[in-house]
Each structure stands twice: as C-alpha cells, then as structure tokens.
Amino acid sequence: MDSDSDDDVFNMDAVVLTADEDEDVLSEGDILKEAELAVIDSNSVRIEQLQTQTANARSHATLDLALLLSRGEYADVVRHESVQSLWKSLGDAIQRLGLTTKHPCTRITQALEEVFVTDPSNMQPLSYTVLFAGAAFLNLFVQLNYTGPAVEDAAFADLLPMLHVLLDDSTVEATKSTLHSHALVSLQVDGESPFSICEYPVFLETARCLLHFVGLQSKVNWTHSESDDHITKPTPLANFLRRPRTVHGMARPLNPQVTAALLALSTGAWWTGRSLMTHQRLLITKEPSNTLWTETQLCFSVVVGRSYPSDTYLSARAQLEWGLAQHVFEIHGKGRASFDDAMAASGLTVQMSGSMGKRTKYQVKSVAQMVLHATSRVENVAGASASALAEAQTTHVDFGGQSSGEMEEANEEGDPLSFEDQLVADGKAAYRNITRDQADPDNILLEHVAFEDGAAASDSNLQVIDQAILLSLCLDVKNNNPADGLTSEQMVRDLCETQRSRERAILQMQALVDQHTTRLTITQTSLKAIQDAAPAHERLAYVYSVIFPPRYELKRDLADRYLSCGVFASALATFQELEMWDEVVQCFQLLDQPKHAEALVRERLAVAPTPLMWCCLGDLTEDVAHYETAWEVSKHRFARAKRTWGRKMFEQHKIDEAIGHFQDAVRVAPMYTQAWFFLGSLSMRTEDWPTAVQAFTRVVQLSPDDGEAWGNLGSIHLRLRQHNEAFNAFQEALKQRRTLWQMWENFVLCAMQVHKFGDAMYAMHQLLDLRDKHKRPVDHEMLAWLVEAIVYPQADAIADDGGENEAATIDMHAVYPLDDDDNDDGVVTRAPTAASDANYKTQLAKLLGRTTSIVTNNPKVWQVYAHFHDGCGHKAKALECRLKECRALQKAGWDKNQHDVELLCRAAKRLSVSYIEDGSKASLHACRLYLRGVVKKSQVDFADNPDVQDLQGVLHHLETLEAQAN
C-alpha cells in the first residue's frame, strides 16, 4: 500500500474513550487506550486499576510496561521481557534483510516492519511495545540531561549490548563511548550537529528510531529534507489534516496491516512530536531545522486533531505542547493561538488587572499596581506527595531547610558530611528566610505590595497544567514585546517568586542544579535527602509542557552572557567544553590569538574532519577552498559552508557566484532567514527582480516582523510599478521601522498611486517629524499632486503656461521618488483620480498649514498652498500665499542671478493676477508699487530678458487700470 494515496493518515477520527458508567468492564482495546493516556498523564493509579480488568496475558504485559513508564522506571521498561523479545526479533530481521549499511533509523524501521509482518496476530501488542520502549528511551535521555536525578553508568551496563543494532559495523563492541560517538553522527540533521557533552545521546537516537516508526511511518529517516517549494511559510494544521505524509520520494510503501496497527495508537504521534522537539533542542545551531519542523507539524496535526473526552486536561496539554513547539522552532506568533486554545480547554481564567496598593514603607497614597488574577476551573486540592514534602524540608529555601537537629539525626544514621555540610549542621551556615530588610537595612521597598483589596494579594491554588499554561503566556509576552520595563512588569505577574530576595533565588537555582546529581551538596546535605528527593516520574510529569532548559543549553546561555560582557576567557572555556567551535574561534580572535585558534582547528580536523571544522579553518585562513571541502564532506548538506562561501564571493565582488552559493544554502536550509535576506539583497544589485521578490517574500514569511525585508520588498514592487503590492509591503515595513524616512517617502508615492490620499498625508506628517534625521527639503511635488487629486479632481491636465511649473512629474524609475534638484521645467501632474472629499480637504489644509509653519522660505510650497486656496475659493489667502512666495524668492543677491530673476518675475506675474482679480484701488496700488520695485532691479542686468519684459508689460497694464479706477 502506497501511503502517497493514504489520506486516512490524517482523516481518522479519535477513538472516543468514554465508557458507559453502568458497565464496569472495558474492552481490551479500550483498556490499552486508557493506559496510553494514563502514561501521558503519569497516572500509575489508573493503570493499576486497569490491570484488574483484564485477564489477557498480552494485555497484562503491555500494562506492565505502561505502569513502569508511569512510575519513572524507564530502564526497567527496556529490561522487560516483551521489549527484550522485540529486540531479539529486531536484530534477527536486520541480519536477515542485510540492513547493516543503512542509516540507523532506516534500518530500525524496516526491520520493525518485517517483525510486524512475520507475526500479524501480534501486531497490536507489538505496537504498544514499540511505543512504550521509545517513550522510555526518550524519558531516560530527558532525565539525564534535563531534570535529573543522575544515574550511574553501571545502571545502564546491561542495556548497552542491546543497542548494538544501531552500529554500522557488527564487529565493533557496543561501549558507551562507541555508542556516544555514533549517536552524535546519526543525530545530525540538515547538516547541523548536536551537543557532544549531552549524556547518553544513544538513548535519544534509539527513541527517535522507534518513534519515527510509530509516528512517521512513511518517512525514510530524518536526513531527508523537505523540498524548497514546501517551506514558503508555516503550513496551517488544517492543511496537514488533508495531506498525505509522503512527499518528494522520501516515502516507501507500507504494509496496510502495519499502518492500521500503528494508526490505532492514540499517543504515537504525541510521543513522536516530543522526541522531535528534544532533537531540535539538542542541535548546536540556534536556527530551526526545516526537516524537524515539517515532521513536528505532521505529528502535532494528529495530536491536536484528536479529542480526549475522558480528560479535558489532555486536550489542554496537547494544545500547550503544540504552542511550545512553535516557540522552539521560532515560528511567527510563537504559539499564542495554541496557548489560548489550551487555556480555553482547561477552563483557566486569566485577567490582567490593577489594584490600589503601596510598594514602599513611606508611601502615603496608594497607586495603581498591576496584578494578575488566575483561577482554575476546578481548584487543585491534591495533597503534596511524600517526595514533595521531603523536597520542601531539604531544598525549598522558603522553609529554611533542615534544622540543625534534623541534620544531627541524619548524621547519627551514618551519612557522611562534607566540611560545608557540617557548617550547615552546626548552624553556622543554616538557611534563613531572608527578607529585604535583612539583606539591605536601607531598603525602602516593602517585602510584598500592600494591596488595599485583600483579594488582590491572595494566590489561588491552580492546577498544575494551568500553571504551565500561565508560564506559556508569560513566554508569549516575552516573545511579542520589546525588552522594556513594561514587559518585565507584565511577566513578573505570572511568576509568584519574583518578589523574593536575590540570595534566596540563588539558593533555589542551586537546588535545581544539585538535583541533577547524587552528590552531597550544600542543598543536599545527607544521603536521606537525596533518596527522598523528587523521583524521576514526578520531575518528568510536566517537563514537556514547559520550556525547561537542558544542562548544555544553560551552559551555552552562560557562555553567551560571558561573551556579551567581554569575559572572553571564561566564554572560551565554556564554548570549548560545549565543542561550539565557531564560538571558540571567535573568542580566540577576540583574545588576539588567531594562531591558537588555527592550531586547535587543525588538531580537531586530525581527530574528526567534520564540515564545521573545515569551515572554521576557512574562517581563519580566508581560503575558500576549505568551504568547498566542507560542502563536499557534508555531501551537500551543510548550509553554513555555502553561506560563508557566498559572503566571501560577495567581498570579492563576484556577485553572480555569491548568488549561486546562497541559492544552494537556502535550498538545504530554507528556514535560515539571513541567507534569504542576503540572496534578496544580491539579486537587487543584479536587478534580478523575480529572485529578489522570492527571497524577501521568504524572509517576511519566516520573520514577519523584519521591517527591512518588507521595505526591500516594497522597493522592488515599486521598481516593477506594482503599486498595490508595494503599498501593502511598505505598510508592514513601517509597522516595524517607523523612523526610516526613506520608507515614508516611498510609502507616500505608493499611496498616491493607489489613491490612498489619507495615508499619503499621514506619511507626509511623519516626514515632517523626521526632518531632523533626513534634512531633505519638503516634497513640494507630492504636495502639488495631493492638491490636484483632492481639490481639482476633474482636471485632466493643466498645460504649461511657459512659467515655473506647479509641480514636477514624478520619476518612477527611482527607488526614492524625489531628489533635491529643483532646476526642472516639468508640467503640472495629471490628476490621478476623482477624489474630492471634504475630509480630505480639511486634512490637506492642516498638512499645508503645518508645512508652511515649519518651512517658511520655500517658494514652491507657498506656490502649492496658493493653488490649494484658489481651488477652495479662498482668494484672499491665495493672494497672501503668493506674496509670501515672492518674498521667499527675494533672497540676497537675487537680482544678480538670471535664474532667480526669472523665477521671481513669473511669481510676481501670478501675484499680479490675484491683485487684479481683487480690483480694489488699494490692491492695484500695492501691486503697482511691488512690481515697479521688482522690474527696476531686474532691468539693471537683465533688461532684455523675456520674463522681465513680460513683467514690465504687466506693470504698464496695472498703471492703466489704476488710472481708470481713479
């Protein structure tokens, strides 16, 4: 059966898991499905109840696996007889089919299908065995790298031999180091490598192989990437629900019975999605993997498409984890809609409000304080577990830790104490509930905000899933707001511990770190405290519902902070520990030690010639041949080599070669926005507009808040005279980059072309606000266009009268519409549309009034203003504007410059028309006096100039009219 035509993969409805209240006995299938969901919820009590309702031996074995998994006994799941039997059959199938040379994922999945086909009557139990084994391996990896407690290597000694099936060479012994090295290579995806300091990556590799078979049956393995055509933007889940899983030759035919057995699992896709997120977070690169993102969408499309009527909180958890997946893969919106869906499913009510209160000791008057009100649909009344109570006694600083008496009792039992622990036992370094006043006697802040309303200070007892949703909402505030004070205020309302003292916060962080280890520490002062600490199943119960950082991610963050603070040596040491060689080379260069960096890189190349190390060597030696080597070593999968190679070609002014390299890079890693941006910029240089449009379109789809990409996209559309598209692009650009005057100029032009005159006038106001930055003259041409379009909508054209133009034509061939050259003899712009609206006229009057109040010496602006008043019937104001135009032209030395003389004579001629239309004696007299002065000065050097002679003729006409009036 070819799953290319198998749309049932995403059309299946979830099995309704409700049982009739009158029936005490569930069917075997329902029992196993209930157990699946109980494992997701870590509900061992429910699984124990289900065990009493079946006598089937196979179901009992499956329920045993579920019970071990829910209790956190993950290694025992792998040791279980059913898993061992499956593994033996798996090894036999690999040998029988000769699959030893294939990728581990391909080898495991094809062998598993063979195991299923050879035992068709046992497919359902086998499906659950594969699912629970994969979940156990995944949780083992998460326990060792995320939550703790740590496990000694000896505890896994019996598990390593069975993982020999992952190795390509059957003669190699399956030791920890061998499996570790092999897993690091196998877990590479899209050319990116995982952190090498993680614990037992082979557990994640095994989980990915098993769960890949469960949730992504048709895919060959994770080394195949999606086609370039399928990553233009995050695909909506609704589309995936009708889309088969097979794409672009990555599919293989599946046995229909095997497919049906795997599709019957309720949580197979859920666990697969969790493994994909864990895989992404293991990669060193901070850029999301396109391959993993595509597979994650496929899995969560099934998860959120199911219904969970037996437990509404499972629906909330499904939506929450899908939202966190979008956050991990840096998808626009970052899961806000999913967080809202999770909140609706759980019944959580959240309201950001305010309440009157005081923050300082000496504050007399209460002021408004931000407060968050959160309430669960059902209050959490469950009592604390024994481990939680033990944790409160040993590590929760709010309760002051163990007393010295308790410490002495623990010591009498024979627990060895270190010197530091003995200090705690003696009371010399006991934990204390440190208040603000104890930490700082001069502190003026209250320990807590004193609210006038007592209800505002009360904390409701939220369900655990509701607490996780609340943290996700806090994460959303951080994702979608700038890093300012208001954002911090909004976030801290979601965190109940933010008002604690710094000392206590440090101890709490230390307690979290110590829970990774089984050593005695300052917060784990006895062996009993370690034994009583929270067990693995409690730690992992909600670890997939929050963004809990693994140890290697914390170290990377610490190293980044060292680097940003200029502590290069400490950053270097941490990056070396993490084997982040790009950053190691950067630190050596910052420390002015390039030779040390090159020696280190060559040493690493001798050990393992990876594509990354070849790129690092290229960075140090400036030899592009090393990037070519990296590209070939990676089998054309390491996009970083092509990106750097392209930049080097650009620096050498080889634009065409650079474009080719960036095209290869985005084909391999299409979610890397900077590569798309660079490709678009280079394509603009070569005027390859289709490629540029495609590149910047990808940028804004992957990062919709990239204002520069929107601006470039708008400029390209403007070049292509696609004004509607340009207008929309500039609208988006200006949402992000409101201080770029170039964008506002282009936006004005686009708005005029699409007859959005209100937007055009708003943009002109913004340009006036930004005059201090651009120092450009006021765009009188655009003002003239606005006047023609709004005040004279019926005018088709105005012929040139031989004088100075009302406004110059717009040059559509320039990215920016105007320049500073005023020496043009164009014609008045043709009115683009009939848009005579009283509101527009009012707005235009305000714009012109504000412009002339800011720029008082621009004669062309006064000319446009006069033309506006003419159209509105304001004759007196038009005359006043023309008089100010003439005064602005009479700058010092105007009578010595022929061009200035001509401009003033034309303006004076237009002024005389207004005076003559007035017709009063005073107007005629004033006009005659003014024209006589202009003519007298102009005739000194330019008596034969036609404009001067025309003005002299107007003067004679005025004298005649004035004589007649007398």
Automatic annotation (TrEMBL):
Pfam families: TPR_16 (PF13432), TPR_8 (PF13181). SUPFAM superfamilies: TPR-like (SSF48452). Keywords: Repeat, TPR repeat. Gene3D superfamilies: Tetratricopeptide repeat domain. InterPro entries: TPR-like_helical_dom_sf, TPR_rpt, TTC27/Emw1. SMART domains: TPR (SM00028). TPR repeats lie at residues 639-672, 673-706, 707-740. This is Uncharacterized protein. The lineage of its organism: Eukaryota, Sar, Stramenopiles, Oomycota, Saprolegniomycetes.
